[in-house]
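Trying the structure run again after the queue cleared.
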Amino acid sequence: EFRRVLFRSIVKKTKPTETFEVEISLNYTYNGSKLTATETWNTRNLSEEELTTKENNYFDRLRRERNQRLADTDYVITKSIEQGLVLTEEFKDYRQELRDLPQTVNIREVNFDTVFPSTPTSFYKA
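Done. Tokens:
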């Protein structure tokens, strides 16, 4: 027999900081009319050696992504030189912010998904 059950509550805890190794599990309880899902974060402190390895891997990934984003906009620089176009300050600032990574981030506090500046909407002055 199949029964459709609605989740009435989900308990979610805040993710621990990056100085922890995390294993996530979901536990379900059902009492006849109510299904509850509980998210559990099992953590253990990383040793300094493990943390250093994790940081180095993070910075390697950060540099690769940063380098790719710079390479993806190199054509804009070439076009500006070849056609005498003037770059916007927004575009110049964007590339400078990329070049400043990873020196401007604290590995233990940064979110990789939001660390990069937004790509400018225009590259050349009108």
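The two ends are 67 Å apart (CA to CA). Worth checking whether this holds up in the mutant runs.
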